[in-house]
Amino acid sequence: MALNKGLGKGLAALLQDLVEEENKNESAPAPQKSAEHGAASAQGANIRTAAGEKPPEQAANGNVSEVELSLVDPNPNQPRKYFDDTALRELAASIKTYGILQPLLLVKFDGRYIIVAGERRYRAAKIAGLSTIPAIVRELSPQDIKEIAIIENLQREDLNPIEAAEAIKELMVTYKMTQDELSQKIGKSRPTVTNLLRLLSLSPSVVALVRGGKLSAGHARALVVVENREIQEKLANTAVLTQMSVRELENQVKLFAVRGVVPEAGEKPPKEKRSKELKDMINTMKRVLGTKVKVIGNDNKGRICIDYFTRDDLDRICSLMDSLKNNNPHS
Q: Of 22, 26, 66, 119, which is the active-site residue?
């Protein structure tokens, strides 16, 4: 029976087993294989049986099965779109030597199987020439499938920030989830979810640079505050060409905010002198409002900027402000 309420306790435990120490498992040498058995999973389940034998599918209790590779299809809604060819070939070489050390998670559909978790292993297995793969077959709802695919990639940090943001937004839109609900589902803090979603407001050319790995998530976050897309793209291209660090790009953005013109590469903004009291106040506002708060200026003159990234975010901040106002006896 398909699960209907997201990640239940059993499913969460299964997911943890599947993704825990994934990178280590895929590259580390396996235990010595016996003549009768191949590699075993971390839980001790046999992945390969005696030659010519395949265990029956037992989806109910999560036993590992051998599934014909030709019957397995990638998930069309897989959040991860880019797979490094070199890394796949390296994994394929490891699989030829040690086998697949971590079973895939599949769902059965119309006589075939769709990958929920493990597409990288599937692709490498095809390169390695395997005819079967170890897998756990489960009955899952479409929402469960989407959540697990996102969580597996996020926990292993396999998604680039744009892929992660797009996958998160799709979950929110498709299943009418708030940022708070989603952060609990995927095990990430709400500010992390918010910061990822902000990246989708970048210009298409800057998104392409982030998606292609030419700019990091830190670079992207620094550029989000630049509303003028032409300036945003100019700063992004300069950052790529001169190989700016995130801190250097942040300095460039600060200079632009003060002067209104794009600064010379490498130019540093003058250091603002701010009192401890002003810094403490900004930190308090960040905690209370649960969002990014920045100050441009000093104790005598400047601007305080409070970020919001969705209508829900704005409504939440407004509710907090109303609550503070209603609790103020002098208002």
A: 119
